[in-house]
Design goal:
The chain is built from two helices and two strands; from the N terminus they run αββα. It is mostly helical. It has one domain. The protein is globular, with a radius of gyration of 11 Å. The N and C termini lie close together (about 10 Å). The structure holds iron/sulfur cluster.
Length: about 70
């Protein structure tokens, strides 16, 4: 599974749970605003964790579903 900066950005742009504010609920932003925000990347998400990137396992799923 790729875990480079580009892929993390692509995933975060597609992710409905991207939580840059750290609240983990995702309610601080809506889906359509993802791609317009700066620093959209799993690295800036409250769910970011090592070594699997996402603590709710969405990274793997989005990479797979979107063939990233
Ligand atoms: S870390 Fe997980 S919840 Fe956060 S943007 Fe990436 S895939 Fe989505």
């Amino acid at each position: 599974m790729k875990k480079d900066d580009h892929t993390m950005k692509e995933v975060a742009e597609r992710c409905t749970r991207f939580s840059p504010c750290g609240c983990k609920s995702g309610s601080c932003q809506n889906d359509s605003s993802n791609s317009t925000q700066e620093n959209v990347s799993c690295k800036f998400c409250a769910h970011y964790t090592e070594p699997d990137v996402c603590d709710i396992d969405l990274y793997r799923e989005i990479v797979k579903n979107h063939d990233l």
